[in-house]
Amino acid sequence: MTTTPTTTASASSAAGNSFSDVTSSESALRRFLHGLPGVDQVGAEARAASLGTRSIKTTAKDYAIDLAIRMVDLTTLEGQDTHGKVRALANKAMRPDPADPTCPQTAAVCVYPDMVAVAKETLGTSGVNVAAVATAFPSGRAALDIKLADTRDAVEAGADEIDMVIDRGAFLSGRYLEVYDEIVAVKEACGPAHLKVIFETGELQTYDNVRRASWLAMMAGGHFIKTSTGKVQPAATLPVTMIMLEAVRDFREATGQMIGVKPAGGIRTSKDAIKYLVMVNEVAGPDWLDPDWFRFGASTLLNDLLMQRTKMTTGRYSGPDYFTLD
Asked: Does 231 qualify as catalytic in the annotation?
């Protein structure tokens, strides 16, 4: 069942050897990944649905909404993005509700690499990070040298975090070592920046593949594992995120290392965000209830969180046009 740790004897052994034996050959890596326990699809979906029905008290809801705001990677990834739009987004990340100075700022602003310098200049010393999508986002269809140049350009422009996409074609073809080596190379190109590894779970086809991709990315050194680009449906879902949370929990049990999780795409309401926070607490544990270890990739979620926060503070809802549209 998915509710029990998925760590195996081979995983513990691999952890003790820094995974060098597991990643020494394609066949060894395939044996390891296919040796992970399979996901009970019915059980996983039932448990995710059950966790999604949990309710929390009003005082906890206050805390949860502020925490969710602090976990948002406020995102704009459109071909029509302009310097002005990115500056406006960065200002909103720093002061989500200009009328309420007690409102926390978001974790990061997520943009294309050519917009990093604009975001960085606007954010200054605010503490809000700049995340850049790289490696031929969202398709991942480019030569490795181009992906590495894309990553280095973003970091040189000031990106604190890089969100890379894996080669889903290589993964689905069973070329696991190729995917592993690419993640390792991108991490090296990141230098001091943190690396989030995007799976595009809507294209991975099975929950077993989500579990395998999670372990692959963690073994390769990713700081975060991320569900989706937001460009493919389905994007983030509760069952997929639960499987990834189980993976980071089990990885820490095997290695002592914590890895973050970022669901992205389709999370639009405070109610949805709270479901994810309940799942984080129940599956991975309270250590992950922190922006350093859990993020929401979102553009419209923040406005709903702000509306709910205003309601709880003032007793009345603000209209949807009270906050800027992103």
From this structure: no
CA 225 – CA 248 distance, rounded (Å): 9
* Choice among 120, 147, 196, 262 that is catalytic: 262
**Which position among 92, 187, 226, 275 bears the catalytic label?**
226
| CA 141/CA 301 separation, integer angstroms | 29
Kindly list the distances between the CA atom of residue 61 and the CA atoms of 55, 277, 313, in Å, as whole numbers in the listed order.
9, 11, 12
Structural domains in the chain plus CATH codes: 13-314 (3.20.20.70)
Token pair in block for residue 125: 């010393």
Residue 226 designated active-site: yes
Work out the end-to-end distance of the chain between its first and last CA atoms, rounded to an integer number of angstroms.
Answer: 41
Q: What is the pLDDT of residues 21-80, one digit of tens each?
A: 999 999 999 999 999 999 999 999 999 999 988 878 777 999 999 999 999 999 999 999
How confident is the model over 186-235, as pLDDT tens digits?
999 999 999 999 999 999 999 999 999 999 999 999 999 999 999 999 99
In the block, tokens 């954010």 appear at 123
Q: Quick check: is 92 catalytic?
A: no
Q: What are phi and psi of 131, to 5 degrees?
A: -105, 140
Q: Which amino acid is at 222?
A: G
